[in-house]
Amino acid sequence: MPFKYVHAADLHLDTPFRGVATQGPLLGRFQDSTFRALTRITDLCLRERVAFLLLAGDLFDMKDRSVRARLALRRELGRLDAAGISTFIVHGNHDPLSGDSGALGLPASVKVFGPDWEEVEVKREGRRLCRVQGISYPDVEVRDDLSARFRRTGEGFTVGLLHANLGGAEGHANYAPCTAAGLGSRGLDYWALGHVHTRAEHALPGGGVAVYPGNPQGRHANEAGPRGCVLVEVEDGGMRRRFVPVDGVRWHKLEVPLSGVSTLDGLLATTLEVVESRCAPELDGHAVRLTLTGRGPLHRELARPGALAQLESDLREQLARGHPPVLLESLRDSSRPEVDLEAVCAAGGFARTLLDEVGFLAEDPEALARLWAEEALGTLAQRLKRLGVEGLEAPRAEWVVQAGMHGVESLHEEETS
Amino acid sequence: MKPGLRIDALHVLGFGRFSGLTRELGPGLHLLYGPNEAGKSTLLAFLRSMLFGFEKRGQPERYEPAHGGAFGGELTLSTSAGPLLVRRIASRRASEGELTVRGADGQELSKEWLEGALAHVSRELFFDVFAFRLDELAGFERLTEQRGASEALVAASMRGARRLPEVMDQLRKRTEALYKPNGVKPVLNETLKALEDVQARLRQEGDRPARYFAEKARLASLVEEQRVLEAALLEVGAGLERLTRLEAALGDVAALAEARAELATLPALDTFPEAGESRLEDGLHRRRSYRAEGARLAERLATVDAGLERLAAPSGVRGREEALGSALSAYGERAVLLRALPSRRAALAEKQRQVELALRELGLPVDGPGLLALDLSASVRVALEELALRLGAAEAARREAEGTWARAVSERERLDGAQARADAELAALPQERASQLRQQQAGLGRLRAARSELERLSEQRAELHRQFESVRTQGEPQVTAAVLPAWWVPAVALAVVALAATAWLLAGNTVGALCLAGGLLLTGVLALARRRVEAARDADVAAQGARQRWRQQEEERLRSALMALAAREELLHRELLAASNEAGLNLVATAADMAAREAALADALERAGRRELLEREQEKLHAEHTAALREEHRASEAMGEAESRQGALGEELAAHLSARCFPPTLAASAALTLWRDAAALRQRLLDVGAEEAALAVDARACEQAASRLWTEAVAAELVTGPAEPPGLDASVLEPLAARVGAALEQERAQSLERRTLEERRAELRAEKARLDGLCHDEEAALAALLAEGGSADEESFRRRAAQARRYAELTGRTRELSHRIEARTGLSETSARQALIDVGGEQGLRAELESLRGKQAESQERQKAVLTECGALRHQLEQWENDDALAKLRIVEESLRARAAELAKQYAADRLTLALLARARRRFEEEQQPRVVQLASEHFTALTQGRYQRVFIPTGEERELRVGDGQRDWSAAQLSRGTREQLYLAFRLAVVRDFGETRGALPLIVDDVLVNFDPERARGAIHLLARLSEHQQVIAFTCHPWLRDAFAAEGARVQTLEAPATELPAPASVLKTG
């Protein structure tokens, strides 16, 4: 019998946006966006009359301590329950079972998988549609490959629901690591994964597929582009998968070239144009990170103290007034002064020596590490880590290179100022 | 190729204010000298622009030519690869201009050649190293103050690192502002601290959701507790109420008992009349007032009666009013008449007298009656008038006829006179006729004309004679024979031929021919001449002939003319004779005679004319005279007629008058006037008579009225005296009339008064009767009231009234109290009392109340607390549900994290940069500095002329620069400013040289740097520059003459730049905004 289901993950309900001012007209709209995304997922389920909804972990963030998130979840799942649509949930690293007091009171049609592997049959009119297996994180740190506990128990469409890191994807904590081969060997038809926030599909050896639907609502500049869930139609053992965007607020990382722009007003206009061209009007809102790039006559203008900040605040104000409103997360200036580095190198002198030093350090990680320690950057990194701030974990060669460039540029400021 | 170049020549096409400027340079030391504004900076910029490109459009240092035209120039360079010609022209496409590089043989090379020659040095680097400007020293001094001399010098010694200390300083500052490991103020520190705080707060929140559900349960239990409390409170409240009511009723119950007791003591006074006492008082009061009123009425009645009595006195007038009234009115009517009687009489008498006087004056022989009897009717008057008219007309006619006659007479007389005068004049005039005279005059005229004509003719004749003679004497000699006979020509020709032949025979053909020719020619000429002369002679002959003929003709003409003249003269002589006869003169009369004759003739002619005129006039006069005579006759006849008529009329009038007793001799008009007067007088007489009669009638009437009045007055006893009236004496009658009137008036008033009084009396009596009735009624009512009240008199009545009041009061009170008790407690009186007893009386009641109250208060307190807690809990739960603050905290946490990450990255980057710079510097110092220091040492020695021997940086930790003179050494900071500057200069030039040695020598450009040096040091510096110029080109600029001389002394090649003649055009610059 044909049936449909929706696979979503990493809802991160009520997790704060990065870069939204705590005071401001846009706060409410942006904060609600995760809830609205969930509502849209529910609407989608109701519209498509799916058989069930899969939620692959990180429904909310324990750190947020948000009652609203739990109540919202209960509400939406209640709607699904009223329509006779079941929901299958596994918990992930951000919302492990250990953190849940259990007083949530979810409807009866919701099945939350526990710390041990379980399988549930989905039936309609007495006939079995498919099987759903799943396992939740007991704690935040799960380093085992949980996928090993999955196995096919019989015929029919089988779905595995798991919060895992497939293939050691960069930028994500390596919880429940697994490999495509490993997943494929379990013999399931569809692996409903969560944890990686970027949408991806992995074809598995053996015919199965592992899908990351990505998070349904981007929360910072690195989660740009359309976000949503995956609608899967199963018919006679065959699958059709469709990505459905449900995000209300979309993030963009935009570059604004400085070349050819000679006035700040012009820059403002160009920026607004760029933003407008990329921000579709049918969404609830947009959030952008703007980077000024290239070389141009305005570079000097922007280097004046306060100029960039002024421009940023002007832009922010103007963008916030738009329809739909656009949140300016930050305005970065990566325009370069007009310095010909090759010429500088060729000219020799101190700059040459500087760049030689840079080269030396970049190639010798030990020397770099020593330098790192000398500058007490390691201690700072530790302190930051304690506070949950990322970025300075380990010294990187390109930082040295950039520092060198910066040094050269500072030394060779243009004469006329 | 080895880099390095030298500028051999520069050629400016158009740059700044220069145009078409060429300068030769070359190796060694050059000085370009020019006063201020001569263009040194412009040239500097030119060199830079040529080598590295024009500045961007809009920059002032672009030096675009102010007035357009070519923009660019050329440099001739010497490089290791040979000479290069570098040409750069401004172009629209590229703001740095179009560059062309040509080689020695003019072929175009790539730009790489130039760049190679420049050692790939950037524009900035070139000017960092190879341009040495005045402000550099200032910058150095600043840096010295900030960072110390050593670092400043070290920085100077490092090519391309002049800004190193500054940059490192900036970075240090920035990093310090960002983060200090144990700091509090830096931004990152603050951010991290804030982050820690927020996370602490978040931690404090604990497990919000768990708490949420726990609190929710607690809320439920609290709600339950509240419900229980409420029920309890309700119960307590009810009991309290009941007892309170009872307490309130306590007082009432006691009062009720009291009232009942008192009521018992009083008699049953329900039947007592209501408001009895007041009714009694009212009644008494009314009775009193009635009585008073009655007394007043009686008084007034007495007064009225007295009045009436008074008025009843007798009076004489009474009864006779009517008669008196009518008599008085009759008298009144006639009073005026009476008063006027005497005056009328007097006037009448006067009139009569006047009439009689007029009658006498009239002149008629009649008296009054007689006048009356006269017939003075209108017909008489008409007749008279007619007569008068006719008389007048007759008189007028007569007068007119008289006038006419007189005029005729005078006319006739006048005419007589005129006639006589005319006759006399005529006699005096001569008889001659005018026509005769005129004829004589004409003759005289003709005579004169003939004479003059004769004279003229004689003149003409003389003239003609003269002409004739002249013509005749005009003879001419004959013309002579020909000059040249005809045979001369052929003769000459033959001679010529002979000559020619001779010549030919003698001298040959040629000569012969020549001679022949010449001879022939001569012959020809001769022939021609002869012909001409012949022709002339012929012409002369012809002319002469013509003249001869003309003369002959003239002679003929003149002759005939003379003859004609003679004939005419003859005629004129005849004429002359005739005319003189006619004129009455001789032929030989002179002009004077003629004139006299003419005058006489004229005079005579005039007189003749006058005579004719007079004769005509005479005839006219005669006719007139006849007419006048006739007229006179007629006029006298008319006059006689008129007179006769007038006489007839006069007689008629006289007859008429005498018939009317008028004097007959009166004229018509006078008669008329008389008639009028008489008629008037007659009328007057009649009037007077009438008036007399009227007067008599009036007098009679007055008498009658007066007597009647008197009679009545006597009867009314208003006057004493005889029964007869004293006649028409106004002085008596008037007062009498007045008295009568007054008496009548008085009588009328009295009767009126009487009537009024009687009315009043009747009224008063009626009033009194009414009052009496009221009084009586009142008495009766009072008696009834007393009886009702069960008392015999007022005193007792009053007493009973008071009692009755009290009775009613008490009854009401008891009723009220019992109602109140019931209302308050809901029980009847008896049951209330019973309840009181049950509860233990008053004290028991109070005790019970207190305890209940205490319980209630307690419960209320508890309830309040529970409610508050519930509210707070609900609020809290709501907050948690909305999670606003927490969400905000989370947002703050996230944003702080992001900020911290950024700041940390920036901090790390800056620190890395700083570290790199430090390490690079150390390396640099180890590798490259020694050479530079050494060079600097050499230079310094030279500059200080051996005062200081060396410059060095001691090994060890401190990288300080030190100078030594061989025995001691000092740090750079310890030197004087001037020496420090020399040291700086030494380093700078060391860097230049080092570069030149290692990379390639480029021209050093020195822009007026030495201006602050004293002459000695300046010379030292210039000497150093000169030494340097052995290795590379040095181009210096200055505007100071003493520096110029110093340069020249060191062998520099000095070139002068002229200041512009007109004002220096500033480089055109358009600043772009924004």
Give keywords.
heterodimer, A: 417 residues, alpha/beta, 6-stranded mixed sheet, 12 helices, 24% strand, globular, B: 1074 residues, 6-stranded antiparallel sheet, 5-stranded parallel sheet, 73% helix, 6% strand, disordered C terminus
Question: Your description of this structure?
Answer:
The complex is a heterodimer of chains A (417) and B (1074). Chain A is of the alpha/beta class. Chain A has helices spanning 26-31, 33-48, 67-82, 180-186, 264-278, 298-303, 307-320, 341-347, 349-363, 365-374, 377-386, 397-411, and strands at residues 3-8, 52-56, 86-90, 110-112, 118-124, 127-134, 157-163, 165-166, 177-178, 190-194, 200-203, 209-212, 228-235, 238-245, 249-257, 285-293, 326-333. In chain A, helix 8 (341-347) crosses helix 9. The longest helix of chain A is centred in the N-terminal third of the chain and has 16 residues, at 33-48. Chain A is globular. Chain A starts with a strand and ends in a 6-residue tail after the last helix. Chain B has a six-stranded antiparallel β-sheet, with helices on one face. In chain B, strands 8-12-13-3-14 form a five-stranded parallel β-sheet, sandwiched between helices. In chain B, strand 12 (1004-1007), helix 24 and strand 13 (1034-1038) form a beta-alpha-beta unit. In chain B, helix 10 packs antiparallel against helix 16 (668-715) and helix 10 (321-362) packs antiparallel against helix 17.
